[in-house]
Amino acid sequence: MMRRLALVAAGAALLAPIASGVAAAQTDIEPRDLQALIDTTGTGGELVLPAGTYSGGVEITRPLTIRGQDGTVVDAFGESTVNTVEAPDVTLTNLIIRNSGDSLDREHSGVEANAPRVTITNNVFEDVLFGVFLRGAEGSLVSNNEIGAPSGPSGSTIAGILLLGEISRNLASN
Predict the structure, then answer these.
(1) Residues 6+ apart with CB under 8 A from 61
(2) What CA–CA distance (Å, rounded) separates 56 from 123?
(3) CATH code assigned to 31-172
(4) What is the pLDDT of residues 84-122, one digit of tens each?
């Protein structure tokens, strides 16, 4: 009986570093590759993102919907625009969009929409130079977003929503 207890205790001691290594690995998870998920979503499809962090700096080139569950973060880590929309009929909803780059000449934004009928609703924008930048995005809807207004690199106040060109759009409750 004592021999069996000694073997169990020795086995537990050997497994402890493995178990603690697994726990450590789980707390140090890399952001998920959002661009790969977008690229595998069909035209007109819906991509539902579970809570977690996804790498930003993505380009959306076909109609689709990206819907986050509570706690879904898209983060550009201070490098670029977080989401660039180049296709019509794209919807971004229920996302935390954060950490765009800070380049004024590159107009780093949380969302840059360069296509018509883009819908941006129920999102939270954190630490972005421009929240939403609509560039010729005819017929777009921007509503129910929380857009912070950080100071730019030169100390200037940056726009929450920036409109470029003569476009019809619906802006509400931002």
Answers:
(1) 86, 87
(2) 15
(3) 2.160.20.10
(4) 999 999 999 999 999 998 888 888 999 999 999 999 999
